[in-house]
Every structure is written in structure tokens, then in C-alpha cells.
Design a protein that fits this description.
Pfam families: GSDH. This is Glucose/Sorbosone dehydrogenase domain-containing protein. The protein has a single domain, classed as TolB, C-terminal domain (Neuraminidase, 6 Propeller). It contains 4 helices and 29 strands. The protein has helices at about 10-30, 110-115, 295-300, 430-455, and strands spanning about 30, 35-45, 50-55, 60-65, 70-75, 80-85, 105-110, 115-125, 130-140, 140-150, 160-165, 170-175, 195-200, 205-210, 210-215, 235, 240-245, 260-265, 270-275, 285-290, 290, 310, 320-325, 340, 350-355, 360-365, 380-390, 395-400, 410-415. The strands form 7 sheets. Strands 1, 2, 23, 24, 25, 26, 27, 28 and 29 form a 9-stranded mixed sheet that branches. It has a 4-stranded antiparallel sheet with strand order 3-4-5-6, with no helix packed on it. A 4-stranded antiparallel sheet has the order 7-8-9-10, with no helix packed on it. It starts with 7 loop residues before the first helix and ends with a helix. About 40% of the residues are buried. Bound molecules: 2-acetamido-2-deoxy-beta-D-glucopyranose (6 copies). One 2-acetamido-2-deoxy-beta-D-glucopyranose binds near residues 429 and 432. One 2-acetamido-2-deoxy-beta-D-glucopyranose binds next to loops.
Length: about 450
């Protein structure tokens, strides 16, 4: 009697989501004290994939970039969300599952509060696709933009997207290798900017071949005196670094300050976490994580630096999302730990440096009953980035649907600690919430049943 119109593909998708949700519910519920709660601070976003914290017109704001091309400002006090910069007409993005183009990142100038300059990383089309790094200065409702670098990208994926300022005041750019297959990578090619970390002085300009260049190559860059190399290169052999951070250092001792950590997404074998240092070679595409892919070349990699941590895809991690070294105060047991996550499952991990090695452990979401009434949010499926607030507290940028042009299902969650006492909080809408939950589950089961019973007929 039921008229369910379902295709096999639809069924597979839903089965996968159900399975993942069950795994997540199992893996992330915890009964011990060391867990986190989530408070939603923004929703209906289109693939929120980077976040920064600053002061704008004397008010604290979070800037949140959407892959579709806008940087929104969220006023911390009033919660008002507005478009700050709109690049939607300029970036290239399509509505499909593996779309790695669009606006991919931004960085605020270290003096942003005074000069209002920020830097964007996006994919744009000028007859062909380029990874474009631009400087934007907003004044009133208009903004001036100038392009610092435009690198032609060979494929549509592995486009990098991280920008950050080091404590040396230089802009670091993490370019993906842009390749379609592991054999065609330019990550080891010293004449190409693909698969590299670049370092630029954006507070100066230069004249190169009689043309203005809106940056200068720092004299301390590692390869400036070797004509075989592009002088912008700071490090090489990277695949597709997705989310890097600069450690602000221990607030008392300064320990760790300035260290740059990155998650480098792997190919078929391993994901890795790297510490980025000058002139280092991170091995791709001769080595993936710790695994040698090209036996004749592995022993010839000069200045190779191995990852501080790797993990196989068989460990249940699909694609790494690098996070910060935690320097906040809400979670004392995370102090000084490197935090990262997994794109596909939304899981969070920490690395604890126990002297010789870095040990991984999973962080768990608290049971709702342990969380304050405003921190009952349940995470979405995909983790896009881990944000860091002004005082070092953390945020998760997530979505349920990465087809961001048609669906705005992204949200930002603030990590908050569980309640201190053991008695559970009674929240006004709690019983309604449970009821809605029950309703959703029943609808789910109904649908599933409906799929089961009709699929044989299709
Ligand atoms: C890429 O390299 C692998 C060995 O690492 C080889 O098996 C494969 O055939 C190569 N693919 C192409 C397209 O050259
Ligand atoms: C190893 O790398 C060299 C240099 O890039 C390349 O010529 C060779 O084809 C690679 N071998 C394999 C098996 O991919
Ligand atoms: C990870 O993968 C590598 C290469 O495939 C393999 O040598 C290693 O044993 C694996 N490690 C674990 C813990 O599964
Ligand atoms: C980190 O490692 C140290 C040294 O092994 C250990 O004493 C400490 O308990 C670990 N911390 C966490 C949070 O796992
Ligand atoms: C928990 O207790 C500690 C000290 O007893 C206090 O500093 C902290 O603010 C409390 N946290 C919450 C969420 O109540
Ligand atoms: C459930 O929600 C309705 C409408 O928002 C509200 O009037 C009612 O008091 C809620 N019930 C409980 C038990 O919180």
C-alpha cells in the first residue's frame, strides 16, 4: 500500500548515514568526566570551513568563511550575523559532492584591528582555474582587492586552502598539489609552487620583470639563493594540507609558541600530522605518511621530515582536519595537546607528546544529561574545520550536506565543558526535545522499513 519512491542509490546513502550515526552515537557517548558538550553559535551556513576571532568597531566578532564565497561576521555579544566580504561572483564552485574549489580560507593581517586587511585563498577562473591569494581591504560597504599570487591548478581537487601568519609576521600559504593522480604530483618539483608551503612578506612590494608584485620574498626564505628554486618556497613535498595552525604557546612559559602544525590529507594509505619547518621536505609523492611509494626516490629526499603522527584509513579516519594546540582554560586535561579531527565521521582526537612519541586518543561527546541546557547540540556528520577563539577555546565547523550551493546545512559549535555536579539539569524544552527525538527515530524506522519492503520491486 505504501508508495515509496526509492532508488538503490538513495537506499545506500541512507543505510550509510544510519550506520555512521549508530557508530558515532556509540563511539562518542561517554560517562566519564572528560568529555565535551556542544553549544550551537551559528547555523544555516554553506560549508563553513574557516573561522577567526577578532575585534571590529570595538566589538568582538568571529569571522566565518563559507566555501560558496562569503566571509560572515558573527557579533559575539549580540549574535547578529552579517556578510562581511562577498566573493560569490568571483569564486568557482559547483554543487557536487567532491567539490574542492570555492573560497577555501582566509587570514587576518596581524594588525587587522587597525588596518582591516585580510587575505583570501580561493579558486577562480581566468580562462582556466587558478588558486588565487588576494589581499582585501574593506572600507564602508566596498572593498579593494589585489591579487598577490595566481597559480594555475592542474585538476579540480587537492587545492589546499590554508593561509596563516607566522609569529615572524610573514604570510604562509599551503598550496595543494592539485593533481588528479599520485604519479603526476608537482610536490617535488622545485620550479612549481604546487604541493608547497610558501612564505611571503605582504607588507612590502617588489618590482619583478618590470612589473609590480604586491609582496616581497623574505631574504631568510630557504631557497632564495638557488636559481633552480622558486624563491617563495618555504617547505615542499606536501599533498593537500587541510587546516594548519600556529601554536600561541603556553600562557605562562611561552612553550611551543610559533610552532606550525598541519594535517596533510593522504591518498589511499595514510593521513598525517606535520610540524612545518623551514626548508623541510614532507616526502609526497615519494612517501605517503611513513609509507614509501617510490623505492628509488625515497632515499634521495633531502631534508626530509617525517610526520609526528600517521594513521591508516583502516583506523576509521577518512580525511584529516588539522586543529589547534589547545591553549584555552575550559578543558585542563587538553592543555598543550594538539587537536585534530576526521572529515567523514566528525570525530575529534588529541595528540599527547609524551617525550618521544605522540599518542592519539579520541575525545568524546558528553551525554546530553551532563551538559548545560544551552549546550545540547548534536554534531553534524562532516567536520570541515576546528576553529580557535580569542582565548584559545575551540569551535567545530560542521555540515550534514556538503552540496553547499543548494543546501545551507552548516553550523558552528562551541566546545563547552560538562556540568560540574552529578545531578542533571532540567531544561525547559527537555521533554519536548525527547519527544521530537522519538518522532524522528520512528520516522526513520518507518522510512527504512519502507525502503526495505519496496527495494526488491525497483
Ligand atoms: C603510478 O605508480 C604506481 C606505482 O607507484 C603504478 O603502479 C601505476 O601504474 C602508476 N600509474 C600511472 C598512471 O602511471
Ligand atoms: C619514481 O619517481 C621518479 C622521479 O619522479 C619517476 O621517474 C618514476 O617513474 C617513479 N617511479 C614510480 C614507480 O612511480
Ligand atoms: C598501516 O599501513 C601500512 C602500509 O599499508 C602497514 O605497513 C601498517 O602495518 C599499517 N599499520 C596499522 C597499525 O594498521
Ligand atoms: C600525556 O602523556 C604523559 C606522559 O606519558 C602522561 O603523564 C599524561 O597523563 C598524558 N596526558 C593525557 C591527557 O593523556
Ligand atoms: C566547576 O567547578 C570549578 C571549581 O570548582 C569552577 O571553577 C567552574 O567554573 C565550574 N564549572 C561550571 C561549568 O560550573
Ligand atoms: C513543549 O513546547 C510547548 C511549545 O513550545 C510549550 O508550551 C510546552 O510548555 C513545552 N513542554 C514542556 C514540558 O516543556
Amino acid at each position: 500500500m505504501l508508495h515509496c519512491i526509492v532508488t538503490d542509490k538513495f537506499k545506500m546513502e541512507w543505510t550509510r548515514v544510519v550506520v555512521i550515526s549508530l557508530i558515532m552515537a556509540h563511539a562518542t557517548s561517554s560517562t566519564d568526566g572528560e568529555c565535551f558538550c556542544l553549544k550551537e553559535i551559528a547555523s544555516e551556513l554553506r560549508n563553513p570551513l574557516y573561522m577567526a576571532h577578532t575585534v571590529l568597531n570595538q566589538e568582538e566578532v568571529y569571522f566565518i568563511a563559507e566555501q560558496t564565497g562569503t566571509i560572515k561576521s558573527l557579533n559575539v555579544k549580540s549574535n547578529v550575523v552579517q556578510d562581511y566580504i562577498d566573493l560569490r561572483e568571483l569564486v568557482v564552485i559547483e554543487d557536487r559532492f567532491r567539490e574542492e574549489r570555492g573560497l577555501l580560507g582566509f587570514a587576518l593581517h596581524p594588525m587587522f584591528v587597525n588596518n582591516h586587511k585580510l587575505y583570501t585563498y580561493s579558486i577562480r577562473n581566468f580562462k582556466k582555474d587558478y588558486a588565487v591569494i588576494s589581499e582585501i581591504k574593506k572600507s564602508g560597504t566596498l572593498f579593494d582587492e589585489r591579487i598577490l599570487v595566481a597559480i594555475p591548478i592542474p585538476g579540480e581537487q587537492r587545492n589546499g586552502g590554508q593561509l596563516l601568519f607566522g609569529i615572524d609576521g610573514y604570510l604562509y600559504i599551503f598550496i595543494g598539489d592539485g593533481a588528479d593522480g599520485s604519479n603526476t604530483s608537482k610536490a617535488q618539483d622545485r620550479t612549481s609552487l604546487l604541493g608547497k608551503v610558501l612564505r611571503l612578506d605582504v607588507d612590502s612590494f617588489d618590482i619583478v620583470n618590470d612589473k609590480i608584485q604586491y609582496y616581497k620574498v623574505p631574504e631568510e626564505n630557504p631557497f632564495v639563493n638557488d636559481a633552480d628554486w622558486r624563491p617563495e618556497i618555504f617547505a615542499l613535498g606536501t599533498r593537500n594540507m587541510w587546516r594548519c595552525s600556529v601554536d600561541r604557546g603556553d600562557s605562562a612559559t611561552g612553550e611551543g609558541k610559533g610552532t606550525i602544525y598541519c594535517g596533510d590529507t593522504g591518498d589511499d594509505l595514510q593521513e598525517e600530522v606535520d610540524i612545518i619547518t623551514k626548508g623541510s621536505n614532507y616526502g609526497w609523492n615519494y612517501r605517503e605518511g611513513n609509507v614509501c611509494l617510490n623505492v628509488t626516490m625515497c632515499s634521495t629526499i633531502a631534508n626530509e621530515v617525517l610526520p609526528i603522527h600517521t594513521f591508516n584509513h583502516s583506523d576509521g579516519i577518512s580525511a584529516i582536519v588539522g586543529g589547534p594546540v589547545y591553549r584555552g582554560t575550559r578543558f585542563p586535561y587538553l592543555a598543550g595537546k594538539y587537536i585534530f579531527g576526521d572529515f567523514g565521521s566528525g570525530r575529534l582526537y588529541m595528540l599527547n607528546n609524551s617525550g618521544q612519541n605522540w599518542q592519539r586518543s579520541e575525545l568524546s561527546l558528553c551525554l546530553t544529561s551532563k551538559c548545560g541546557c544551552k549546550a545540547h547540540a548534536t554534531p553534524k556528520q562532516f567536520l570541515l574545520a576546528i576553529g580557535e577563539g580569542n582565548s584559545g577555546e575551540m569551535f567545530l565547523l560542521m555540515t550534514d550536506n556538503i552540496m553547499a550551493q543548494s543546501v545551507a546545512s552548516g553550523a558552528v559549535y562551541e566546545l563547552v565543558p560538562p556540568l560540574n555536579d552529578t545531578k542533571t539539569a532540567t531544561c525547559g524544552s527537555e521533554s519536548n526535545r525527547s519527544f521530537i527525538g522519538l518522532l524522528l527515530v520512528s520516522t526513520f524506522l518507518f522510512l527504512l522499513n519502507c525502503i526495505e519492503t519496496t527495494s526488491t520491486e525497483i
